[in-house]
Specification:
By secondary structure, the chain is an alpha+beta fold. It has 9 helices and 24 strands. Bound molecules: zinc ion.
Amino acid sequence: MKQYRLHIYAIGIFVAGLIVGLSNMIFTDEPQTAPAVVQEVVTETIVDEVSDTPVETVISNVAADEPLGLTETMSLSAENNDETYAKEIRIKSGQGLMDALLNNGAERGDAFNAINSLGDLYNVRKIQVGQLLNAAYSPSGDLVRLSLQKDFDHRINVEREGDIYKSTVEELATQTITRHASGIIEDSLFLAAQRQGLPQITIVELIRIFSYDVDFQREMRKGDQFEIFYERTLSEDGRRVREGNILFAKLILSGKEINLYRHTPDNSDYAEYFHEDGQSSKKALMKTPIEGARLSSNYGRRKHPVLGYTRMHKGVDFSAPTGTPIMAAGDGVVERSSWFGSFGNYVRLRHNGSYKTIYAHMSKYGRGIKKGARVRQGQIIGYVGATGRVTGRHLHYEVYKDGTQVNPMNLKMPSGIKLAGAPFESFKVAMTTTNTQIDETKSHILLTKAITEQAPSISAE
Ligand SMILES: [Zn+2]
């Protein structure tokens, strides 16, 4: 018998492994509150119910997206115990709450009073078509209970006490799980992620958090890779899902890794995404990409120093000694690094989909500053000079947002913090925790796959 149970257990793991293998994705779990979607629980269910459980049933038990609802069957049997009659009511098109209750056996006075009470906690006018109500009636036909789901994790219960109704909000138990997915980008990140079963809302968030680092229009190549580790919250019955935060994400672009960790820094109420070195993904462009310089000409209308007539100066000038280093205002890619007419020696950087910066009149270029090179914020891209049409040595600096020049001094960009000292130490601890969670998830996948491979010989016994 013991051997038999082991055998069944192995099949259980095999089935679960197959599903995981198919979806190439796994649910990690909190074993103490395991619901139907967790593999181990399903496996045990098979052991208990032994031989006749059809495989199809097993699969529908573990299927991530459509787990079986448990609470409805449970609540029905509970209603039976106190001899009330329970009824599920679904709001139909053009129907209000009142109509729905009257059409389903409630007396007008009861319905009116119950809805009045419900109205304290719920905007009854905004009830949606398809909304499910759970009503219960006494043997004599009085409406004794009415409940409905308010949002993902709240239910409103209206209870009759004597002749009046009272409403309360019930916080519903939920379970947060983590998921891991990775893939190779053949066409677009969006499609690659979708193929791995990532929900749309999570893919959009994935693209958003990388948008400061990556120009998705130009930098993605076939064969680039992504990895993501994110949360999902499940309702107690496993039927409803709320997508959660991305805890970690990685892009490998032309062999270069970009990692982002979600973290709430000490002394902050807001989570942000950080690179391993503590740099926030939200990097502001530097307003002054040069040290020890004097702002010599501001953005706006001015009389041109060489041409003599008034024209728009669509940049800012910084006066500094020839040879003063000029820094990349932000992380990005060199789009041009060559002589450009009146601009002289000229560099243009593309920072992401929206921002570009240009640097003109340089005496020489920084080392390795060639078209296509990636630069980090603060990296030296050139040196102050007086090349092109100028009266004296200075840096002419422009910022483009979505194709038009903007005043760099008025840039409203998120301030990109870099963690240092104690906050950086806390971040490193958090990073280690996340990495451990990811490793556990990955080893879980490997274990399941290994058992899957052995499984045919076991089931042939
Ligand atoms: Zn200028």
